[in-house]
Amino acid sequence: MNYVYLIDTDWIIHYLNGQVKIVERLNTLRKDGLAISMVSLAELYEGIIYSKEPNASKDALKSFLTGTVVLDINEGICEVFGQERGKLRKQGKLVSDFDLLIASTCLYYNLTLLTNNRKHFSMVENLKIISLLR
Questions:
Q1: What is the reported pTM?
Q2: In sequence order, which residues have a C-beta less than 8 Å from that of residue 14 and are 6 or more positions away?
Q3: Up-side HSE of residue 62: CA atoms within 13 Å toward CB?
Q4: Residues 6+ apart with CB under 8 A from 123
Q5: How far, in Å, CA of 82 to CA of 101, rounded?
Q6: 133 has a pLDDT exceeding 70
Q7: Pick the CATH number of 5-130 from 3.40.50.1010, 1.10.150.170, 3.40.718.10, 1.10.1740.10
Q8: Average pLDDT rounded to a whole number, residues 29-52
Q9: For 20, what's the count of Cα atoms within 13 Å in the CB-facing half-sphere?
């Protein structure tokens, strides 16, 4: 399956919570191919496990993931991560490791990141970002 967009954790949470702008946009972009990082999946499972209704939350996530590619972290992504983290450190900039792994996945696969957390990702050069809510 081809994919063009990598969905950040925040957009998935907004989607699952029924945020209309996000739901409409993701439904429109599905035809172009959607993917998420294994890192986002891990973050989502934390939310599911500690939610008021873990079983319903897990079912909603599984439904959302239908037709969405989950990308593992591979050696190429790790190499991009190392390069980007070193470059940012030299500039005195800090990005969380999870966010940097998500950004590195985008760079490795040449994907556009769907996120509203521009602050977290804007320090990464050449990262294509689409935001809706902020």
A1: 0.94
A2: 22, 23, 116, 133
A3: 6
A4: 88, 91, 93, 95
A5: 10
A6: no
A7: 3.40.50.1010
A8: 96
A9: 0
